Every structure is written in structure tokens, then in C-alpha cells.
């Protein structure tokens, strides 16, 4: 039993750190950290940055995404928080549909660092680091479901077959639902009360 648990844990951990192929970089690649993105020394080098889409612009021959930068997790998904190191722009050679690549979606991109571009965030002037010739990975939305269940009680320690491994029990969850009394029950209750009063 312990053996199967260990194998399951190893497989689960492996799945958690899997990296999308389009985001892989050759070994020994010294990818530019976003914190150094505005340095002139990094132009022409490879970088892998991620964050949340803030704006989309479809040009004649490419698509520009403006990204709010966030640090990446072990599997390269952006880890959103209340602080950011800034914004950057990435250019994809082709069309990225703004209905799919819309504001608020998480992406990670691999590309080549280019010269800074001057722009604005609202009315605030801002110099954007730029990634060109980018490979873009759009992350699926994470949906969390909170289900409250009450488990059926069991006592494995009194079951000799459980320890021998020749028999297993399925612990089936029981969902507790509250229900109001039916109309027939209400009527019977009223009739009982009336009869008791007559007596």
C-alpha cells in the first residue's frame, strides 16, 4: 500500500513541474531576468517572461500584447499578486484573437529582448521592455470547487481483511441535504392538533 502511495506522489510532483514545450529553452541558456529588462546590455538575448494581459493590439502583420509582469512558478505559470515589477510588450508574428487573448488572462512568453518602447499607462509615461518573435503560451483558467461532504464512518482496525490486502472497502461520501416538510405532513400535523383539542 505504501509503495503505491509513493508512486502516486512522484507522478503528481512530476506533473506539477511539467513545462509547456513552446516555453523550453536550450540548456545553459542565460535567460534575461525581467528585473534587468531595461538594461541596454541585454538587447538581443533570450528571455522568458510572464504575467497578465493588460491590452491587445492587432497590427497588419503582428499582434502586440501589453503584459503586467509577475514572477513565474516552477512550471512557468505567472504567480499573480498585489505587486508587480512593471509591464512589458511582446510581439507575436501573426494574429492573436483578442476575444481569446483578452485582458486578465495569464500568459508566459519566450522571445528576444529588443529596444525599449516609449508609451503610456493611462496618462503616465512609461518605457516598455520589449520581447519580439515571441512564442506565447496562454494558461487555462483555474476553477476551484468547494464541496462539503460528510464521510461515512468506518473502522478498518477491526477488519482483518483490510490489513491482509485481500479486501478493500469503498468509503462512499454522503451529502447531507436539508428539506422542508411536505404539504401532506403539514396537513396531518394540523389534523392531529385539531383532534387533540376536541378531546
Cα gyration radius (Å): 29 Å
| Helix/strand/pairing category | alpha+beta
Tell me, rounded to a whole number, the average pLDDT. 79
CATH topology of one domain: OB fold (Dihydrolipoamide Acetyltransferase, E2P)
CATH H-level superfamily title of one domain: Nucleic acid-binding proteins
What is the N-to-C succession of helices and strands? HEEEEEEHEH
The order of strands across the largest sheet is 1-2-3-5-4
- List the uncertain runs: 164-169, 178-189
Tell me the span between the first and last alpha carbons: 67 Å
Strand content: 25-35%
Question: Major sheet, described briefly?
Answer: 5 strands, mixed, barrel
- Give the CATH level 1 class of one domain: Mainly Beta
At CATH's second level, what is the architecture of one domain?
Beta Barrel
Number of strands: 7
Percentage of residues in helical conformation = 10-25%
Shape verdict: globular
How would you characterize this protein structure?
- The protein is an alpha+beta fold and 199 residues long.
- The chain has a domain at 22-138: OB fold (Dihydrolipoamide Acetyltransferase, E2P).
- It is built from three helices and seven strands.
- The strands form two sheets. The chain has a five-stranded mixed beta barrel. Strands 6-7 form a two-stranded antiparallel sheet.
- A hairpin with a 2-residue loop joins strand 4 (106-121) and strand 5.
- The protein starts with a helix and ends with a helix.
- 18% of the residues are buried.
- Mean pLDDT is 79; it is low at 164-169 and 178-189.
